[in-house]
Amino acid sequence: MAERRNFRDALEPIVYLNSSFVIACWDDRDPFHFECQMFLGRLQAEEIVCVVSDFTYNEVAFYILRQALTSEARRTGQRWEDVLRSAPHVFQTAMNEVEVVKAEIDRSTVYLPTSESAKDLAFTLMRQYNLLPTDAYHVAVALDAGVSAFVSLDEDLLAVDGIAVYTCP
To answer: Taking the domains of the chain in order of start, what are their residue ranges?
Structure first.
């Protein structure tokens, strides 16, 4: 089991920002938005190195795009996938927000690339801890880079031995 930490605990010098945390920081409708914003401010004030990977960018972008497409789908009585094809302007408008959030992530974090060894480790983590692929990749990329502290609202990461997970109570 991971060591569960809360947002008031002592900080590690480097933390991996999981997409659930980044989404909660961005989306003011998220129930943990305020707590995540405050914790992000603490990380920045204490000059903690925050890292992310392609998987963070992917999940955050997908969340923003799907939210916009789903909203239009509800309004028009379609499936969000159909809105993607029938109303490309909705996608393009949402891409503006994706690019704003990407720029903020770029400005405030360090990017960790995915190595071949991280890819192999991800499959090991999936099998060993019953992690979904993207969760396993988040952990694998971080561990491969020597980062073992995570900020996440995803409780599934707590199954992984040898890591610390800062999470909102």
So the answer is: 3-166
Q: Is the separation of the CB atoms in 110 and 48 below 8 Å?
A: no
- Cβ neighbourhood burial of 2 (10 Å; 0-12, 13-18, 19+): buried
Torsion of CA 71, 61, 30, 122, to 10 degrees: 130
For residue 14, how many other CB atoms are within 10 A of its CB? 16
- pLDDT tens digits, 114-165: 999 999 999 999 999 999 999 999 999 999 999 999 999 999 999 999 999 9
Q: How far is the CA of 69 from the CAs of 21, 75, 76, 80, 89, in angstroms?
A: 22, 10, 10, 5, 10
Q: Is this structure's pTM higher than 0.90?
A: yes
| Domain 3-166, CATH | 3.40.50.1010
d(CA 8, CA 42): 9
> Can you say whether residue 47 is alpha, beta or left, with left for phi > 0 and alpha for psi between -120 and 50 degrees?
left
